[in-house]
Amino acid sequence: MNRHADVIVIGAGIVGCAIACELARRGTAVRIVDDRPAGMGATQASAGVLAPYLEAREGTAFLDLTVRSLNLYDSFIAELAGESGEQISYRRTGTIDIALDDDALRTLQERATVLTRIGVSSALLSPDAVRSEEPHVGYGAAGALLVEAHGFVVVADLIRALTLAGRQHGIEFAAPARAHRISRQDDAVAVDTDNGTLSAATVVLAAGSWSGAIDVEGAGAHAPVRPVRGQLLSLAWRGTPLRRTTWGSRCYLVPWDDGTLLVGATMEEAGFDERATVAGVRDLLEAAGELIPHAWSAGFNGAKVGLRPATTDGLPIVGRSAAVPNLVYATGHFRNGVLLAPLTAKLVADLVMGSPADSALAALAPSRFGAL
Predict the structure, then answer these.
(1) Secondary structure string (H, E, C) spanning the chain
(2) Could you tell me if 324 and 184 are in contact, meaning their C-beta atoms sit under 8 angstroms apart?
(3) Among 143, 104, 146, 98, which Cα is nearest to 122's?
(4) Is the overall model pTM greater than 0.85, yes or no?
(5) Pairing assessment for the beta strands 151-153 and 90-91 based on DSSP bridges
């Protein structure tokens, strides 16, 4: 096997695969290194919700990033579908955020005010209007906020399309191996793995929650990314489906065309423990039943678990390393890896290819955490 590539991407999750595919489109020889198959880390436990305005805080870097990425999604999906020949289930049917009490309703009213101020179409719904928009909502709803720009993508479809499109563009998936160390090697960057050392002109570190476990030569610290466990349930819905992604204070529900209903997701500081737990399943089932009573009659398909890569300030780490020339970080996307994948892929590919730096990178720079 040729052990040199133009770019090595460490991490085969949604972010790593999107970056690799974008680089390969631009004529770069790319190799992906991971100890799991593509999309089998946190990505496989993602509901694929595309909803930047649910936690809208006006003027924040996070909102700007997520909105920019959402605006790329139509072309992102169309291009991937064309390249891969795969059908990707992608819907922009909006979200409805349900308030079950007056305090929650006040929060939605405040959010609606922010959305109006920044020019985003939304609608505050009365209790009667809530049930008109979503008949499955329980009678205890105090109101709701409808945001039509939102949507979701079936992540399994998306990762399959990225993999197929990437292979057509020449991406090589290395034999399963975990990366342990990144170092300088003459005019290249070396990556020590379970299967030996690989080298490339540039390395992209997109290993999600495992990014902090990889030593970087000369760095003052490891990447400050920690795992946050998220449990996601899959239910077999019967009867008329939900019309759109439905949110409450304790869970969200995503209806697929095939009758599957996803219920997510817990946020647990459990280290690298990837087990589904009785408590997690119970809490999500209770939250779903409180929001949508008909959920109690659904079948139970199972639960998935993903470790979301979180940073202390809630923003991803995207940018060049100060310690190793031509090492680029692309990690720490927490619950928003799927939403931010198109924009992250563009930012990193532009950086690797020498395009002018995007202004968004200032807020995401690794240097905010020291000499990484």
Answers:
(1) CCCEEEEEEECCCHHHHHHHHHHHHCCCCEEEECCCCCCCCHHHHCCCEECHHHHCCCCCHHHHHHHHHHHHHHHHHHHHHHHHCCCCCEECCCEEEEECCHHHHHHHHHHHHHHHHCCCCCEEECHHHHHHHCCCCCCCCCEEEEECCCEEECHHHHHHHHHHHHHHCCCEECCCCCEEEEEEECCEEEEEECCEEEEEEEEEECCHHHHHHCEECCCCCCCCCEEEEEEEEEEECCCCCCCCEEECCCCEEEECCCCEEEEECCCECCCCCCCCCHHHHHHHHHHHHHHCHHHHHCEEEEEEEEEEEECCCCCCEEEECCCCCCEEEEECCHHHHHHHHHHHHHHHHHHHHCCCCCCCHHHHCHHHHCCC
(2) yes
(3) 146
(4) yes
(5) antiparallel
Please give the pLDDT value at position 28.
Answer: 96
Q: Which two tokens stand for residue 229?
A: 């466990």
Per-residue pLDDT for 26 more than 60?
Answer: yes
Return all residues near 24 (Cβ < 8 A) that are at least 6 apart. Answer: 30, 166, 169, 170, 171
pLDDT digits (tens, 9 = 90+) for 193-221: 999 999 999 999 999 999 999 999 999 99
Residue 306 and residue 228: Cα distance in Å, rounded? 8
pLDDT band at residue 59 under the 50/70/90 scheme: confident
CA atoms of 338 and 43, how far apart (whole Å): 8
